C-alpha cells in the first residue's frame, strides 16, 4: 500500500519540491523541472494540450497495426477451428453455400474445453515472452533491432500455421493440433518480443518538453508531454483495434473458403512489419541498450531492502513503507564510502522507486484481464447457440475493436479535453478504476444473457452451442445473435479506461533505459490472468457460464474498489513522478565520479 503524504513524495525523489498548503506562494515563480521556462504558476493555471506527433510515431503505429491484424486475424478463429468439427461435405472447414444461413465453420472437432485450453495457452505464452524481448532490448539489442529479429521469427510461425490448416493435414486432427501448437509457440515468441518494444518505441518518437505556446487566438497554453503520451497511446490502441478488425474478414474467409486461406491473409499482412521497419530505419528515434540496467535495478532494490528485513513480517512491511526506505541505495547517504558496484546516482534510485510504484499498480490487472478473456472464446460459444441469420458467430466479437475505434476519437477530442476544461482531474488511477467497474458491468450483462439463453435454447443448459437437429444442422435458440454485442462494447469501453492507461502509465513511470522491461511486466499481468483462467478450465463449460460470468463481475468490482482504496492518493504525486528523469542526466553517475569511488 502506498502513502502519498509529503514524506513519501520526498522519498521518491529528494529534489522534488512539494508545496505545503501553509507555505509561501512565492514558489509559484519557480520553473518546473525539465520544462522549457514554464513556472509552477503557469503549470497550474494554463490549459494543457497535446503536442504534435512526429511522423515516425505513425510508422510505428503501422507496424503495430499489421502485427495485430495478423494476430487477431488468426487467434480469433481458433475457437471455432479447434472446437467444431468439419461442416458436412467440407475438407477445409468452410461451410457449404446451402448451409451458410446458420452454419458454423469448424475443422478439428476437439470440443469446448480443449479449444479453451489451447487458446488460454496461446494468450499466456504471448504475454510471457515480452519479458524476454524487453530484457534483450534494454540490455543487448535496443528496441529497433529486437522488433526486427522477432518479426522474422513471428513470420516463420505464421507460415507453419497456414500449413497446419491445409486440407491434407486437417484430415488428421491429431497431427493438425500438434502443428497448430508448434505454430502458436513460435508466433507467441515473435509476437511477445514485438509487444514489449513497439509500445515504448512509439512514445520514444516524441521528444518534446513541457513548454508554453501562444495560439493564433492569443491564448497561452502548455504543450504537455503527459497529455501527448496519453494521446499517443489512444491512437496506438486504435491501431491495435483497427488491426484486430482483421478478424472480420477472417470470419467470412474461414466460413466461405476454409481455414488455410483464412490464416494465409494475415500472414501476408504481417509482411508489412519488416518492410515498414526497413523503410524508416534511418528516421526512427532509437534508444540504445544500457547493458546491465536490469542488474543495476536489482542491486538498487537489494541495497534498499537489506536493512528493512526483519524476522517479523509485519515489521518488514512497515520498514518498506517508511519514507526513507530507498535511502540506503542512494550514494548521497553513504558519506563518501560508496561501494564500487554502486554506479548510479540518487536520480536513478528515484526512477527505480517510481518503477516499483507503477509495477504495484499493474499487479491488480490480472483480474481485469479475466473479464477481457471471455470475449475471445466463451462469448463466441454463446453466440453459436443463437440465430445467426448469415452472420458467422465469431464475427460478433469484432464489435469490441469497432467500438474502441469509434470511441477513441470521442474521448481524445471531446470527453478528455472537456473534463480538463472543467477542471476535473480524471487521473490515471481513476481511469483504471472506471475500467474495472465497466468490465464488471460487461460480465453482469453476459451472465444475464446466458441465463436467458438457457431458457430459450431447445437444449437449455446442456451445451446450447452443440444443439442440433436430426440432420445435424444447428438447432439454435430464437435469439438474434447481435444481442451478444453488448458485452463486447462494454469491454471496449473498459479497455479505453484501463488498458490504454496501463500502457501510458508503464511508459511514463519507467526509467528511460528500462521502459521495455516495465512494459513487458505490465503485459505479463495478462499472462497471469491466463494462468488463473487455465486453472478454471473445469468450470469453463457452457452449463456454468452464468455463474462464471457473474463471479467475474463481482471480482472486477471488488478488486477495482480495493485498487482505488490502495492507490487513492497516488495521483497527488502524478506530476512529480512524471518529472523524475526528465533532466539531462541519464540517472547514472558520470565516469569521473565512478573512478573516484573505485
TrEMBL record:
Alphabetically ordered keywords of this record: Membrane, Transmembrane, Transmembrane helix, Transport
Membrane topology: Multi-pass membrane protein
Single GO cellular component term: plasma membrane
Annotated transmembrane regions: 124-141, 148-170, 176-194, 232-253, 259-280, 358-375, 395-419, 431-448, 488-507, 545-567
Keyword Transmembrane helix set for record: yes
Domain of life: Eukaryota
Molecular-function GO terms, alphabetical: dipeptide transmembrane transporter activity
Subcellular localization: Membrane
Family annotation (Pfam families): PTR2
PANTHER family reported for this sequence: OLIGOPEPTIDE TRANSPORTER-RELATED
Family note: Belongs to the major facilitator superfamily. Proton-dependent oligopeptide transporter (POT/PTR) (TC 2.A.17) family.
Protein name (Swiss-Prot/TrEMBL): Major facilitator superfamily (MFS) profile domain-containing protein
Amino acid at each position: 500500500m502506498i502513502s502519498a503524504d509529503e514524506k513519501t513524495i520526498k522519498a521518491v525523489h529528494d529534489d522534488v519540491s512539494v508545496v505545503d498548503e501553509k507555505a509561501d506562494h512565492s514558489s509559484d515563480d519557480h520553473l518546473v523541472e525539465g520544462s522549457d521556462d514554464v513556472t509552477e504558476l503557469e503549470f497550474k493555471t494554463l490549459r494543457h494540450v497535446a503536442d504534435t506527433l512526429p511522423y515516425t510515431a505513425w510508422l510505428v503505429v503501422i507496424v503495430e497495426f499489421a502485427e495485430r491484424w495478423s494476430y487477431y486475424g488468426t487467434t480469433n478463429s481458433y475457437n471455432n477451428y479447434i472446437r467444431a468439427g468439419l461442416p458436412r461435405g467440407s475438407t477445409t472447414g468452410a461451410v457449404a453455400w446451402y448451409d451458410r444461413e446458420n452454419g458454423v465453420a469448424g475443422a478439428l472437432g476437439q470440443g469446448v474445453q480443449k479449444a479453451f485450453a489451447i487458446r488460454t495457452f496461446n494468450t499466456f505464452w504471448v504475454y510471457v515472452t515480452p519479458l524476454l524481448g524487453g530484457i534483450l532490448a534494454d540490455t543487448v539489442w535496443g528496441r529497433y533491432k529486437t522488433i526486427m529479429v522477432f518479426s522474422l521469427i513471428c513470420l516463420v510461425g505464421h507460415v507453419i500455421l497456414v500449413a497446419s490448416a491445409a486440407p491434407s493435414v486437417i484430415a488428421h486432427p491429431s497431427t493438425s493440433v500438434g502443428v497448430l501448437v508448434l505454430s502458436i509457440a513460435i508466433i507467441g515468441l515473435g509476437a511477445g518480443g514485438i509487444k514489449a518494444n513497439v509500445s515504448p518505441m512509439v512514445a520514444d518518437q516524441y521528444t518534446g518538453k513541457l513548454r508554453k505556446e501562444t495560439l493564433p487566438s492569443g491564448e497561452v497554453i502548455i504543450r504537455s508531454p503527459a497529455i501527448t503520451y496519453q494521446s499517443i497511446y489512444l491512437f496506438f490502441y486504435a491501431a491495435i483495434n483497427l488491426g484486430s478488425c482483421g478478424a472480420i474478414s477472417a470470419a467470412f474467409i474461414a466460413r466461405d473458403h476454409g481455414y488455410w486461406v483464412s490464416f494465409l491473409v494475415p500472414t501476408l499482412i504481417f509482411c508489412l512489419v519488416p518492410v515498414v521497419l526497413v523503410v524508416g530505419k534511418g528516421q526512427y528515434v532509437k534508444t540504445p541498450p544500457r547493458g546491465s540496467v536490469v542488474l543495476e535495478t536489482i542491486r538498487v532494490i537489494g541495497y534498499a531492502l537489506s536493512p528493512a528485513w526483519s524476522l517479523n513480517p509485519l515489521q518488514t512491511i512497515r520498514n518498506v513503507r517508511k519514507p526513507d526506505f530507498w535511502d540506503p541505495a542512494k550514494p548521497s547517504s553513504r558519506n563518501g564510502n560508496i561501494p564500487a558496484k554502486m554506479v548510479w546516482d540518487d536520480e536513478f534510485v528515484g526512477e527505480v522507486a517510481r518503477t516499483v510504484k507503477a509495477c504495484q499498480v499493474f499487479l491488480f490487472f490480472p483480474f481485469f484481464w479475466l473479464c477481457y478473456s471471455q470475449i475471445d472464446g466463451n462469448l463466441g460459444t454463446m453466440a453459436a447457440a443463437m440465430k445467426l441469420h448469415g452472420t458467422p458467430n465469431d464475427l460478433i466479437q469484432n464489435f469490441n475493436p469497432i467500438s474502441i475505434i469509434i470511441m477513441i476519437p470521442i474521448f481524445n477530442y471531446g470527453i478528455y479535453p472537456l473534463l480538463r476544461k472543467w477542471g476535473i482531474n480524471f487521473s490515471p488511477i481513476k481511469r483504471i478504476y472506471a475500467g474495472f467497474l465497466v468490465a464488471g458491468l460487461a460480465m453482469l450483462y453476459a451472465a444475464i444473457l446466458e441465463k436467458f439463453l438457457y431458457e430459450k435454447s431447445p437444449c437449455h443448459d446442456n451445451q446450447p452451442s452443440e444443439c442440433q437437429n436430426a440432420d445435424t444442422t444447428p438447432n439454435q435458440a430464437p435469439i438474434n445473435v447481435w444481442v451478444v454485442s453488448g458485452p463486447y462494447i462494454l469491454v471496449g469501453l473498459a479497455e479505453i479506461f484501463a488498458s490504454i492507461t496501463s500502457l501510458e502509465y508503464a511508459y511514463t513511470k519507467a526509467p528511460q533505459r528500462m521502459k521495455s522491461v516495465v512494459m513487458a511486466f505490465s503485459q505479463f499481468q495478462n499472462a497471469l490472468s491466463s494462468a488463473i483462467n487455465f486453472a478454471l478450465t473445469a468450470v469453463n463449460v457452457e452449463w456454468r457460464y452464468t455463474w462464471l460470468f457473474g463471479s467475474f463481475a463481482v471480482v472486477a468490482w471488488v478488486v477495482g474498489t480495493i485498487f482505488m482504496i490502495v492507490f487513492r492518493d497516488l495521483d497527488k504525486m502524478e506530476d512529480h513522478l512524471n518529472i523524475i528523469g526528465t533532466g539531462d542526466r541519464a540517472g547514472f553517475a558520470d565516469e569521473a565520479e565512478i573512478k573516484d569511488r573505485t
